[in-house]
Automatic annotation (TrEMBL):
Annotated F-box domain residues: 9-51
InterPro entries: AT3G44326-like, F-box-like_dom_sf, F-box_dom
Protein name stated in the entry: F-box plant protein
Organism from which the protein derives: Medicago truncatula (Barrel medic)
Entries under PANTHER family matching the protein: F-BOX PLANT-LIKE PROTEIN (PTHR33736:SF28), F-BOX PROTEIN-RELATED (PTHR33736)
């Protein structure tokens, strides 16, 4: 293991590996077979990395599904962490499934607790597979998650544009695959301040369609505490029309999309 050969494997696993992020561990596992064994076979290490990056994975439904992945949390990370790119619009390439799991986290940069975390099961039948992919989430429990934000009214828009983060992972429970549609590093494309709320929008392009998430935030306590009220996910054509067969495109992207490590 080169310089690592002088260290006890227990020291490496206890004091070195837990200090690294997932991307660094993936790179380090390619150095030599001994390191690959220490890293790839440490399920607890990968579970901690995944649940810290995606808090919604602590939900029992999702944690059980991930245990069925061939490499557990390591396989999930390899699928969900890279940016996904897919260009083939053929509807014959995907393998039929009966449902998708959407795992959503919304947080403020630097805050340990997410503003909003949600698991949504999307049935994939003849109605949803050809739909426009619209998903509407309203979370009344998010009222309990109010994070203090000491900002004047005119500073709130810029603050949320720089700090509000969205993570959206979709899981194929049959093929044991996952895809990160939006990553916690992406910033909003737009933020609109209204009288009693703020609308925040995220968007990405795939298969000639715009995949968009709109987040509605509200302020409490005289405007010094922020919480998430409504989240809407939808797919549109570049022409502005609702994206037809969005379910097919989503499944196709999960199963056949190219994973690219982003900066």
């Amino acid at each position: 293991m080169n310089n690592f050969s002088r260290l006890d494997p227990d020291i490496i696993q206890t004091y070195i590996l837990p200090r690294l992020d997932g991307a660094a561990l993936m790179a380090l596992s390619c150095v030599c077979s001994d390191l690959r064994h220490l890293i790839c076979n440490n399920e607890e290490l990968w579970r901690n990395i995944c649940t810290s990056m995606w808090p919604c994975l602590l939900h029992p439904t999702v944690s059980h599904i991930i245990t069925t992945f061939p490499g557990g949390y390591r396989s999930f990370f390899s699928d969900a962490f890279p940016s996904i790119h897919h260009y083939n619009q053929s509807h014959c390439l995907y393998r039929p499934i009966n449902k998708l799991i959407h795992a959503i986290d919304i947080s403020l940069h630097g805050e340990p607790k997410p503003l909003f975390t949600k698991i949504r099961v999307q049935p994939m039948n003849k109605f949803t597979i050809y739909s426009n992919g619209k998903i509407f989430l309203r979370d009344y429990s998010s009222l309990e998650t109010q994070i203090p934000v000491k900002k004047e009214r005119w500073d709130r828009t810029e603050y949320l544009h720089e700090n509000l983060r969205l993570s959206w992972v979709v899981i194929d429970t049959i093929q044991n695959r996952a895809a990160g549609l939006f990553h916690s590093s992406c910033k909003p494309l737009w933020v609109n301040q209204m009288l009693t709320k703020i609308e925040v929008g995220y968007s990405t392009m795939m298969l000639g369609q715009k995949w968009q998430v709109n987040v509605t935030c509200r302020w409490k306590g005289g405007g010094d505490r922020l919480y998430v009220r409504i989240v809407v996910f939808g797919i549109e054509h570049m022409t502005g029309e609702l994206g037809r067969q969005a379910g097919i495109n989503l499944v196709n992207a999960i199963q056949n999309g190219e994973r690219i490590i982003f900066d």
